[in-house]
Amino acid sequence: MDFGEFAGSIPRTIGNCTLIEEINFSENNLTGVLPPELGGLSNLKTLRMDENALIGNVPSALFNISAIEVIGMYTNLLSGSLPPTMGLFMPNLRELRLGGNELEGTIPSSISNASTLAVVDLSNNSFTGLIPGTIGNLRQLQVLNLANNHLTSESSTPQLSILSALGNCKNLRRIYFSVNPLNTTLPISFGNLSSSLEQFWADDCNLKGNIPNTIGNLSSLIALSLANNELASVVPTTAERLTNLQLLDLQGNQLEGNITDNLCHSDSLFDLSLGGNKLSGSIPECLGNLTTLRHLNLSSNNFTSTIPLSLGNLAGILVLNLSSNFLSGSLPLVFRQLMVAEEIDLSRNQLSGQIPNSTWFHKNLAYLSLATNRLQGPIPGSLSFAVSLEFLDLSHNSLSGLIPKSLETLLHLKYFNVSFNGLEGEIPSEGPFRNFSAQSYMMNNGLCGAPRLQVPPCKTYAPRGATVTLVFLLELILPLIAATMAALYIFVWLRCPNKNVRPILANTRFTYRELEQATDGFGEGNLLGRGSFGSVYKGTLSDGMIVAIKVFDAENEVSCRGFEVEREVMCHACHPNIVTIFCSSNAANFKALVIEYMVNGSLEKWLHTHNYSLDILQRLDIMIDTASAVEHLHSGSSWIIVHGDLKPSNILLDEDMIARLSDFSIAQVLKPDGQQNSSGPSLFLGTIGYVAPGNASAS
In which residues is ATP bound (predicted)? Predict the structure, then answer.
């Protein structure tokens, strides 16, 4: 009897239907109590009243129907206890589903008399007392769900515990004990559970002791959760035999030692959670081979060394949490391959260097925390590419420069924290920044903005009328001045093509040892900046000469191609507005360029930093210098050189504020006939916002 959509209480007259074999009132709006007349339906085989609002006790007479096979009443408001004789008169019962109610008392040991039981679900109730060991006599049992109760297990004699008793149930496929104060250990006989066991959930159960080596016998396991217990020692090496695992959750225990390769043998691992333990050593490279991973949590341990580059192979990862460890080194550029990641948490480590450029930030990223590290340099404006970002924490680092106004476009941003850094300039005021308080910006002495943010007001350099007049004059006169001076410069340059050209220093050689000494061992104190292909250091040679040393990542094929191109271009393109190269090192494990050091840094600093400014004539000179360099690259020699990444950070200024073009690592070099002679990396790596729109869309 299936009543479909039905409301109200169950009529007591239902007891008159003595021949009825099936009743299905599931997912209706039933209220009231279960009529005791149900116990008189001697032919009833199936009773389903799941997901209603029934209250009161379960009639004890219901458990006397010998023909009953299925009792389903999960997700109601039923209360009371189960009768102590339950199971004595139900030889045909296969499914008992009473989960999600308000039942209490003990689970009767007589339940084992219902010997054909295959499914027992008493979860999400308030049962107390010991789990009866007689459940181990249910030889047909396939699913046992006792989660979210107040049940305990025999702890004084582990071999008599429920886990040992269940070794007799050879058909068991799923066991749920989660959130019960079992207060026991995992016995050695744990490995004697059914070889068909697929899921074992015992998180928040006050489990103690070790994870037994016999766990490797459970070769059919696809989900194992022992989270939030008091398990100690190490992860057993026999775990390597669990090759079908899709979920392994051991977080919140007291596990120690290293993670060995024994966890890298599953071809289908979806979720690996080992956070909140005492694990140490380095994170194994082999985790990068688990390409099916969607969630990886190694937080709150004692891991050291650097973040393995192999984690960049986890192209399908959704959540990556390595927070609260002792990881060092820079943020891996390979994380730009994590294109579907929604949450990345690397906070509370010892990471250094700069935050990578735009290739790190993808549209799916909603949560990013890099807080409490040793990061330096600017906040990249390319963070605005993470259009789904809701949480951004960069606090407690050594970041400098401006807060990019482009972040105003992050319309979903709800939490923003850059406190305890060295930021300066005006705090953005539009978009989500309307909602952030002073706590987001504390301890950044150079910031300015609205009084409510508890920072000084920003300086105003000209009245409104003067600004309007200046803008009008610039728009009217600047194009004319620029055109005239550019024409004059080109005329002089064509008449005197070799005048004032600085040649490459002949016979200049530096050993690796000399460069290492010049940079104090390539130390952080001499680091000028990091880019896509390597790092640039300030070096002081033995004769006092100051140079810039650009060190490429010799283990990265793309970086090595960039080195070859930049060396070739800089040796060929000799011009007063192009940075001069002194020498290069092309060893197998060390690739570097020694170039001129530009005292006044980059144009980006002068344009976008609060403490620097350029007047109109300086800006005009820099425009002309840059145009001259580009003109020389395009038509000043037998080669045609396309820079490919012309932006303020690649325009350097010498002691006389003369602009010098730099960074040719992704340049394109063409022969006179138009064919490509050599080029930078095949993957487009230009900077969005500066690159030609056609190339930007292609990337």
Answer: 550
